[in-house]
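Notes to self, UDP-N-acetylglucosamine 3-dehydrogenase:
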Amino acid sequence: MGLRAGLLGVGMMGRHHARVMREVEGIELVAIADPGGDPHGVAGDLEILPDIEALIGAGIDMAVVAVPTRFHEDAALKLAAAGVHTLVEKPIANTLDAGRRMVDAFAEAGLVGAVGHIERFNPALQELRRRIEADELGAVYQVVTRRQGPFPSRIADVGVAKDLASHDVDLTAWVVQSDYERVFAQTAFKSGREHEDMITITGRTASGVIVNNIVNWLSPMKERLTVVTGERGAFIADTSTGDLTFFANGTIPLEWESVSSFRGVSEGDVTRYAFAKREPLRVEHEAFRDAVLGLESDVVTMQQGLRTLAVIEAALESAANGTAVSLL
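result:
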């Protein structure tokens, strides 16, 4: 018998949570609630409970909240009041005020409050973070992310900034271990929906790293790239395949006179790393379990989730006003 776990919401994301929660050692999925029933047939021998109150009534130690963003606060506050450690899907909430109330509730109750920023657990980014920490890149100069693809079939209750750009803001700050300090953003509304479907965020972290996040739902090709450029070269992480490649700055002197007079970098060796590629959602659940057990973990805290939402809100404010926004 492990930790008794409950799941609220078994839609597009919740169905994956249900599968992984049944596979992770040390936790036991004992209850599922979804007012919309079980569209993907993941309940198995569990009864589909009608609401969060019924889920809490099942006697759970920890819960995953995978319902639309606007419902996060209500569920999380009820779980905190009931003494249940909780992981909510990203973004933490649909407003900063709601996110703050969630952060405060879990802090006051002494519970683990976490946010499902799953990209941090992508094998390519985990490997990238380890290598930057080991100083393989030297000083980090710039992070560029590109997250582009067609509009998702699921109807989103938020725009592309909160749904997708929040991934890039979170992973960028985590990879360089420094928060965004200033942002300038531009948005576009091209598909007739009330929310933006394209955003570009440019900014700088407190540590001086230049950042650019390019995100949209308007591209016929799917792209999930993070490029980190630094003193010794550039890492390219493809989070759709989990691959990590390093382009080293060359050290071989160039003989062609007009080129060799340029004192920049030259092309060196290109290395594609081989490493274990575990499913990010499983690694995320293991981190949440470890945090609940009081062990050291990489879990994304609600405080960090709130910071990411603050950056996204600042970017949307910047786009609306045409000015840069400081986050200090």
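- The domain at 120-276+309-326 is CATH 3.30.360.10 (Dihydrodipicolinate Reductase; domain 2).
- The first strand starts at residue 3 and ends at 8.
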